[in-house]
Amino acid sequence: MEKSFEKPVLSRSILAALFSGICAVCATELYNMLYRGITHYNPSFIINVSSLIFGPLIAAMFAGILFYFLTTYIKGGVYLFQFIFLILCVALGNVALHSHYGGNLPTFEGFKGLLLGIDVILGIFIILLIPYFFKHNKIFMD
After folding, report:
1. 106-118: string of b/e by CB count within 10 Å (b at 16+)?
2. pLDDT tens-digit readout, 84-98
3. Distance between alpha carbon 36 and the CA centroid of its chain, in Å?
4. Of 30, 59, 119, 120, whose CA is between 20 and 30 Å from 95?
5. 27 contacts 125 by C-beta, under 8 angstroms
6. Cβ distance 56 to 96 under 8 Å?
7. C-alpha distances in angstroms, 96 versus 78, 122, 141?
8. How far apart are the C-alpha atoms of 33 and 14, rounded to whole Å?
9. Is the pTM of the predicted complex or chain greater than 0.70?
């Protein structure tokens, strides 16, 4: 006898966020290696391997929980979720463009480019992949 049950929406949201967070970690690590290899920018102690692993995962998990609440309690919650994170991504991109890290201009410009690229990659992965993986949950479930 096979028992079938409906998987809770919260678990689908969290798993979709986790899967998109893992994809974002891979993309940001690749961008980090390419950016540092092309520009020879090395002095950032803020953006390192551990912050590039845990930062996108924590942000994606927060986004997944918010996605659950918005889609459960608000009609059109997916579009509201995407709008909220688009605004948040633009705001954080603005902060990245006006950040003041480092004492000299090449260090400052290198940090801005690295932080802005990571912000854009993370925003794209959260905005597009969490709703996609939520809807297509057969990719990581069953």
Report:
1. eeeebbbbbbbbb
2. 999 999 999 998 888
3. 20
4. 30
5. yes
6. no
7. 26, 13, 36
8. 28
9. yes
